[in-house]
Amino acid sequence: xxxxxxxxxxxxxxxxxxxxxxxxxxxxxxxxxxxxxxxxxxxxxxxxxxxxxxxxxxxxxxxxxxxxxxxxxxxxxxxxxxxxxxxxxxxxxxxxxxxxxxxxxxxxxxxxxxxxxxxxxxxxxxxxxxxxxxxxxxxxxxxxxxxxxxxxxxxxxxxxxxxxxxxxx
Length: 169
Prior knowledge:
This protein is of the alpha+beta class. 22% of the residues lie in helices and 39% in strands. An eight-stranded mixed sheet has the order 2-3-4-1-5-8-7-6.
């Protein structure tokens, strides 16, 4: 397929960035991962677990399929609402689209993104900076029904995304 060249113009709108990721939130990451492996064909994942800044815990599974990265996520405890707060209350498996992920490549694009969100009165319920690794944020665009996540990686963050996350293609 011959695709048009990417020329991000975030001053035109926040969807004018390089979209590369589809993410799902779940209340049972082991079952969700098994579903993706056995029924959807994504067999290899990179597992990330750790504390949230507010004291909770997060568990993420990442996998490439060609040029698309899939993310499964769950969280619990303080600070977890941004990740699982929109899931239905149930004792059975809950799995829901959470966000589309976009790659930001320059400081200028990052600033344009933040300015565009402010001009549009869209909330940024999550904004983080991990020095030497990555800037990231979620922008809440209610009319879309999901978050938009923006990743602005430094060289180490880009290397992680491209070298550590397995490709299932």
